[in-house]
Amino acid sequence: MDLHSGGCLRGGVRYQARGPLREVIFCHCSQCRRQTGLYYAATSVAQADLTLLVDQPLRWFAASEFAERGFCGTCGSALFWRPRKAGHIAILAGSLDDPSALKAGYHICCEGRPAYYPVEGALPQYPHSAPGVAIDGV
Ligand SMILES: [Zn+2]
Ligand SMILES: [Zn+2]
After folding, report:
1. ∠ CA(78), CA(36), CA(100), 5° rounding?
2. Pick from 20, 40, 46: which is nearest to 108 by CA?
3. From ligand 2's centre to the CA of 121, what distance in Å?
4. Residue 20 Cα, ligand 1 centroid: separation in angstroms?
5. Residues, CB within 5 angstroms of ligand 2 (ion)
6. Spatial contact of 4 and 98, defined as CB atoms under 8 Å apart
7. How far apart are CA 37 and CA 42, in angstroms?
8. What digits encode the pLDDT tens for the residues 70-125?
9. Strand 40-46 vs strand 24-27: parallel, antiparallel, or unpaired?
10. Per CATH, is 3-108 categorized as 2.170.150.70?
């Protein structure tokens, strides 16, 4: 079984995700910038494939009409993003214990990205969402 464990900085939230893990999508929208301090880098699995092992400090807030963001109320780590009407959940790539299974995908919401950090390399960069993907579909 393709299992991946992860959690927040303090360890108060721990999860297990059944893979395969989606490629990592980098979102440069203003919500992701404010929550993370820079940009969101997230993989994704089906919601049914994420098991919360310890989640007492996990908090959710409605960041928009269509999605919620999950974070640790104790240590502040951003952890999850889940749309209300779709069956997947985005998991912050940095929260995985072993990131070696992850591969980089592409950048979204690049329009309006501040100029103080560069985005270089060969990965595709889309101004909004990627073709065929719902907006903010991290
Ligand atoms: Zn975003
Ligand atoms: Zn925590």
Report:
1. 70
2. 40
3. 32
4. 22
5. 8, 10, 12, 72, 74-75
6. yes
7. 14
8. 999 999 999 999 999 989 999 999 999 999 989 999 999 999 899 999 999 999 99
9. antiparallel
10. yes
